[in-house]
Hints:
Blueprint: E1 6-7, H1 9-38, H2 47-72, E2 74-75, E3 90-95, E4 101-107, E5 118-120, H3 124-129, E6 137-142, E7 145-156
Parallel strand pairs: 1-2, 4-5
Antiparallel strand pairs: 3-4, 3-7, 6-7
Helix pairs in contact: 1-2
Amino acid sequence: MAKSNYITRHGWNTLDQELKFLWREERPKVTQAVSEAAALGDRSENAEYIYGKRRLREIDRRVRFLSKRLDVLQIVDYHPKQEGKIFFGAWIELEDPNGQTKQYRIVGCDEFDPQKNWISIDSPVARALIGKAVDDEINVNTPSGKAIWYINKIWYQKD
């Protein structure tokens, strides 16, 4: 399944800041350290040179990825028409049949974060939630079996 190109404004800004940091600050520092290490002589046993070159390749790989990804990402901003229904960027409170509640936010695949309970728009849970309203019931097939949740609350954080 192809990943979606949607992202919140906050998520796009975060990726853009990372790209600028890597290109303007981190890469020049590492390049300087590599050239200083190279000036010391034998490069084959020079750990600083070897590590610096490896780090430079990692930075360049990430810069290439971010540059290409930021070009295709589509920022999805909040719109008042979304109120009352679940769409991209929504915060949702779900309750299972046992009364346990969980809160999630639907975000792009480039910004999902399990520690923050941010789930990707491409996940089965998010797909089941899109378009639903408070008091609706969703059924989702999970690795541990079928899960049933009730939607208690929907809200949007305006960026």
